Amino acid sequence: MARVVVDVMLKPEILDPQGKAVQGALPRLGFDGVLDVRQGKRFELEVEGEVTAERLAEIEKIAETLLANPVIEDFTVHVEDAS
């Protein structure tokens, strides 16, 4: 069994109101020096067996079809260290 992680983020040109809300709250809470905040999503998929190139391609298709909206979001797929 292996864990594959899909990180989804809004494309840089897309406004991120949640990120801006967090950024605005930080100084009020006493946290200074944060110049920007972008909010995203993380999906962890537990898969059977070894993660092959074919399996990664299938997971990328899952991300493109279901987990991310490719019009406004970018995603990355990586295998997380099992240790």
TrEMBL record:
It is found in: Cytoplasm. It catalyses: N(2)-formyl-N(1)-(5-phospho-beta-D-ribosyl)glycinamide + L-glutamine + ATP + H2O = 2-formamido-N(1)-(5-O-phospho-beta-D-ribosyl)acetamidine + L-glutamate + ADP + phosphate + H(+). It comes from the Bacteria. The lineage of its organism: Bacteria, Bacillati, Actinomycetota, Actinomycetes, Propionibacteriales. Pfam families: PurS. Keywords: ATP-binding, Cytoplasm, Ligase, Nucleotide-binding, Purine biosynthesis. InterPro entries: PurS, PurS-like_sf. Part of the phosphoribosylformylglycinamidine synthase complex involved in the purines biosynthetic pathway. Catalyzes the ATP-dependent conversion of formylglycinamide ribonucleotide (FGAR) and glutamine to yield formylglycinamidine ribonucleotide (FGAM) and glutamate. The FGAM synthase complex is composed of three subunits. PurQ produces an ammonia molecule by converting glutamine to glutamate. PurL transfers the ammonia molecule to FGAR to form FGAM in an ATP-dependent manner. NCBIfam families: phosphoribosylformylglycinamidine synthase subunit PurS, PRK05974.1. This is Phosphoribosylformylglycinamidine synthase subunit PurS. Belongs to the PurS family. The keyword ATP-binding applies. Its EC number is 6.3.5.3. Pathway: Purine metabolism; IMP biosynthesis via de novo pathway; 5-amino-1-(5-phospho-D-ribosyl)imidazole from N(2)-formyl-N(1)-(5-phospho-D-ribosyl)glycinamide: step 1/2. Part of the FGAM synthase complex composed of 1 PurL, 1 PurQ and 2 PurS subunits.
